[in-house]
Write a structure and sequence with these properties.
It is built from one helix and six strands; from the N terminus they run αββββββ. The protein is of the alpha+beta class.
């Protein structure tokens, strides 16, 4: 899931999407583990604490410079040098 967050309204929209995802998983007896969520920031960013609420717990997201998703390495500069 990716979203551009520039204000509180964007943060609320992301949180609503995460709740919908959690509901989808619960209906299918799948539990997502928010402790495994990663935050990768692209472009101009501000430093701050990023938290999400899922499974009745508030989790602070850990940020990363690069992450592997579906076998593809992506970094915060959108360079694929990790391949």
């Amino acid at each position: 899931m990716s979203v551009c967050i520039t204000n509180d309204s964007d943060s609320s929209h992301l949180q609503k999407d995460l709740h919908a995802l959690d509901g989808w998983g619960s209906k299918r007896q799948m539990r997502f583990n928010p402790k495994k969520y990663k935050l990768i920031m692209l472009g101009v960013t501000t430093i701050g604490t990023h938290t999400v609420r899922m499974n009745d717990a508030t989790v602070t997201l850990s940020d990363t410079k690069e992450e592997k998703d579906l076998g593809v390495w992506v970094d915060s500069e959108l360079k694929f040098s990790g391949h």
